[in-house]
């Protein structure tokens, strides 16, 4: 691709040079302008840019992906599809979209972030407009809190200046230092512009295990009452979840102004996964690897997973996180 770009650039330059030697000065200016414009067109064709060719929301694609690739998350699927569809179809949103995804490991939080990116950006998670921050990697030292606050503000400001449709994913929010995330509050608030920059078309996604215990307890209560988990509604969890996260001293959202000022649009609960969901994950993983899905193999994989509580063995300890690697043993 780089070689093609070089060749085309040289071609444009050479053509323009020939034309410059042929025409009068006034015509030369026009020709150079055309050459430059053509060069920019070729560059934008070959390189990702902040325009509809590279950034376009595929609502149908996201709906299909959520239905066929995400299992056991009827609440999360519905919220995410509606939130993204409403936000991306609004040419003049009042504020950025802010989603906070919560649940135990392996329930699909990171996976959903990937599905969202895949259905907005042509390059998916590899897009230069998708930015992932991991607490232990990017903000490891508590003594550098003030430095991290400044850096984070500059990173977001710089990237949104570059593209208003930027997406920021903050992983491991439960491991982030309390107070750090508050440094970006102005960018998530109801401001038309800050220092001449609009943040209203950006997307912020927080991923956290915090609140997982509360979510699991509700799911377990439904299971013990012999109620279908699909009966669990957002109203059963959202208030409990936001309070749990807000008051969790080990969470990066502890006493954060983002919650206090209602800047998080949706707290999205990810339910713990049961045996049947693990089987579905294994079947999907086989299909993704180009293998013919085999129910017997999927059952073997699911049986090899640890479940909790120990006495009832209802939910997978690691959700579907290790399923793909376990398949190597059985296929």
TrEMBL record:
It comes from the Eukaryota. This is Torsin. The gene is tor1. It comes from Sander lucioperca (Pike-perch). Residues 1-22 form the signal peptide. Gene3D superfamilies: P-loop containing nucleotide triphosphate hydrolases. SUPFAM superfamilies: P-loop containing nucleoside triphosphate hydrolases. One of its GO terms (biological process) is nuclear membrane organization. The keyword Nucleotide-binding applies. Residues 95-236 form the AAA+ ATPase domain. Belongs to the ClpA/ClpB family. Torsin subfamily. Keywords: ATP-binding, Endoplasmic reticulum, Glycoprotein, Nucleotide-binding, Signal. One of its GO terms (molecular function) is ATP hydrolysis activity.
């Amino acid at each position: 691709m780089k070689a093609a770009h070089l060749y085309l650039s040289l071609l444009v330059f050479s053509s323009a040079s020939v034309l410059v030697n042929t025409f009068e000065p006034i015509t030369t200016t026009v020709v150079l302008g055309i050459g430059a414009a053509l060069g920019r067109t070729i560059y934008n064709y070959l390189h990702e840019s902040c325009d509809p060719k590279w950034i376009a929301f595929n609502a149908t694609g996201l709906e299909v992906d959520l239905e066929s690739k995400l299992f056991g998350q009827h609440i999360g699927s519905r919220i995410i599809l509606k939130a993204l569809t409403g936000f991306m179809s609004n040419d003049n949103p009042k504020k950025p979209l802010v989603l906070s995804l919560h649940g135990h490991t392996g329930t699909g939080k990171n996976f959903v972030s990937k599905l969202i990116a895949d259905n907005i950006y042509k390059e998916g998670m590899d897009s230069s407009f998708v930015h992932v921050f991991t607490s232990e990697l990017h903000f490891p030292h508590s003594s550098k809190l003030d430095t991290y606050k400044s850096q984070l503000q500059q990173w977001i400001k710089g990237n949104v200046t570059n593209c208003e449709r930027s997406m920021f994913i903050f992983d491991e929010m439960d491991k982030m230092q309390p107070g750090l995330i508050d440094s970006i509050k102005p960018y998530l608030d109801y401001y038309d512009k800050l220092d001449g920059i609009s943040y209203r078309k950006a997307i912020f996604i927080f991923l956290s295990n915090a609140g997982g215990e509360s979510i699991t307890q509700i799911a377990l209560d439904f299971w013990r009452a012999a109620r279908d988990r699909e009966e669990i509604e957002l109203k059963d969890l959202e208030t409990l979840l936001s309070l749990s996260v807000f008051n969790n001293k080990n969470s990066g959202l502890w006493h954060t102004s983002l919650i206090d000022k209602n800047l998080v649009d949706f707290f999205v609960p990810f339910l713990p996964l049961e045996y049947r969901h693990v089987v579905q994950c294994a079947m999907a993983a086989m299909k993704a690897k180009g293998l013919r899905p085999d129910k017997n193999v999927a059952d073997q994989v699911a049986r090899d997973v640890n479940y909790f509580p120990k006495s009832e063995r209802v939910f997978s300890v690691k959700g579907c996180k290790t399923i793909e690697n376990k398949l190597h043993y059985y296929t």
